[in-house]
Amino acid sequence: MSVTSCLPPEKPALNKGEMTQLLDIAREAIRSHFSDDLPLPPQLDLYHRKLRAKGACFVTLEVDGTLQGCLGTVTANEPLVIEVHNKARDSAYQDRRFMPLTEEQLDSLTIEISVLSEPKLLSVNSEEELLAYLEQHKVGVILTEHYSQAVFLPQVWEKLPNPAAFIKALKQKAGWPMNHWSPNVRVKTFTITQMKGKYFTPLA
Hints:
Layout: E1 2-5, H1 16-31, H2 49-52, E2 56-63, E3 66-72, H3 80-93, E4 109-116, E5 120-122, H4 127-136, E6 140-145, E7 148-152, H5 163-174, E8 186-190, E9 192-198
Antiparallel strand pairs: 1-9, 2-3, 2-4, 4-9, 5-8, 6-7, 6-8
Helix pairs in contact: 1-3
C-alpha cells in the first residue's frame, strides 16, 4: 500500500490513517454487493470532521493491473465518506466502459482513492500559455467549453508526460478536434491526495 500527497499548502492533506479509512469504506461498498447485507452508507458520526466535510473524489479499480472502472466527481456535493462509498460502487458496477465487477475478480482487485483539492481557475490566454504552465506543474486538469467538459487526474501524466500530448488527449476526451482552442475554453487545475491498496488486505 502506498500513499502520496500533493495537495496545496493552504489545504492540509488527509493523513495516512484518514486515507486508510476511505480505502476501507470503498472495500465495504464493493463487498456489500456480494452479500445479503444492505448497502448502507457510512455512519458520519464515526469519522473525523475532515472526512465528514463535503469532498470530491475519484475511485479507480484495477484487476491484475488492468483498468476495471474509474468514476468520480470534481465538485464537492456530498460528505467525503459518502462520496467515496458511492463512487466505489459506481466504479465497480456502473462504469459503462466495462462489464460489472465479478466476485471472481476480487482476489486481483486493487482500489485507488483520489481526493481532489478544490479546482482553481487558471488564467491563460492561449494553449501555448497552458502548455508552458504544465511543463512546470503536473497537476490535474479540467477543460470546459460551454456544455463540454473533460477531466484528467494527475496520474495520467505517468502515461502522457508530454504536455502537448496530454492536452490533445484531453481535448479528444471532450469530443473536440485535437487542434481546437477558443477564447471560451476554461481551464481549471487541481491536485490530489491518493492511496492505493488491494481489496484483500494481507494478514498481519
